[in-house]
Amino acid sequence: MRRRTFLKTASAGILAGMLMPRQAFAYMPVNKNIGLQLYSLRNEIQEDLEGSLEKISNIGYVKLEAAAYSEGKFYGMEPAKFRELIKKYGMKVISSHLTFKDEEVVQVLDAHREAEIKYLVWPWIGQEQRQSIESYQKLAEKFNSFGQLCKENDLHFGYHNHDFEFTPIGGQIPYEILLESTNPDFVFMQIDLYWAAYAGQDPVKYFEKYPGRFKLWHVKDMKADASKGMTEVGSGIIDYKKIFEYRSLAGMKEFFVEQDVIEGDGFESVKKSFDHLSELLK
Questions:
Q1: Model-level pTM greater than 0.85?
Q2: What is the 3-state secondary structure of 44-99?
Q3: How far apart are CA 149 and CA 106, in angstroms?
Q4: Cys bridge to 190: 216, 227, 257, 274, which one at CB 3.0-4.6 A?
């Protein structure tokens, strides 16, 4: 199921870091640092939310990103109850993927504050919104407005890319339009490293050109064959050892394993990515 279809049904210190050696970036023990985007296990969660959370916790994940907010609820639960359910299994939801209408903003902010979710991420834009540079600029204005409201409520607002943002329009790269037209004080980027690689982009070049803008990352790997399909981290061709060396320059605060398409058992898949990252980031 495509992300936009799932969303529709389920949810109707930078300068200092830049000057430090890359290897000097301080972070928590790795098993406390690896996050999981719950969209990866959407089918399992739909069948058994609590059972899935228990299995995710047993793998070692402690940070989560939600993907099913709708009308003031998360996965059909009131924010406080959802927060306590996650806490029961020793985890915390750090971020949330959602779309919403202008008139829903107050409810969105209230729900995320109550759930103690500090990052709100816009995960997708429809084809009608990406027809021209002007449409991207208009979208950037909207994001600036949302981002300012989030900041005023001690929250953070960001945008998650796919591959289409890197397709030039009139000689300009839409992703760069979004970066340059949004206020860094109000809007961050959640860079999906797989989709950037799928589009033939080197994320490190973006970290160097726009330092500090990429607070959240999505981490998944790419198959070596012509399909360029998704696979578990460590099973593909993306050089995550190199990319993670630049996490301080990028401004990365959190990262989440995500795999939109999983072949085989979902829990085994996200465990494989977890285990590889645990070893890679020792």
A1: yes
A2: HHHHCHHHHHHHHHHHCCCEEEECCEECCEECCECHHHHHHHHHHCCCEEEEEECC
A3: 9
A4: 216
Structure tokens at 7: 């969303």
Distance separating alpha carbons of residues 180 and 155, to the nearest angstrom = 21
Judge whether residue 12 has pLDDT over 90: no
Position 3 scores a pLDDT of 52
Residue 54's alpha-carbon distances to 49, 57, 89, 90, 246, in angstroms, are 9, 5, 6, 9, 33
Provide the b/e sequence for 235-255 (b: ≥16 CB within 10 Å): bbebebeebbebbbbbbbbbb
Q: Which CATH architecture fits 3-280?
A: Alpha-Beta Barrel (3.20)
- Show me where the domains of the chain are located: 3-280
Q: Which of 216, 214, 234 is nearest to 224 (CA)?
A: 234
The pLDDT score that the predictor gives to residue 5 is 46
Query: Residue 68 in 3-state DSSP?
Result: coil
- Output the pLDDT for position 11: 43
Is residue 55 within 8 A of residue 267, CB to CB? The reply is: yes
Angle at 238 between CA 234 and CA 244, to 5 degrees: 85
In one-letter notation, the amino acid at residue 248 is: S
> What does the mean pLDDT of the chain come to?
91
- pLDDT of 101-132, one tens digit each? 999 999 999 999 999 999 999 999 999 889 99
What is the residue whose two structure tokens read 């495509």? Answer: 2
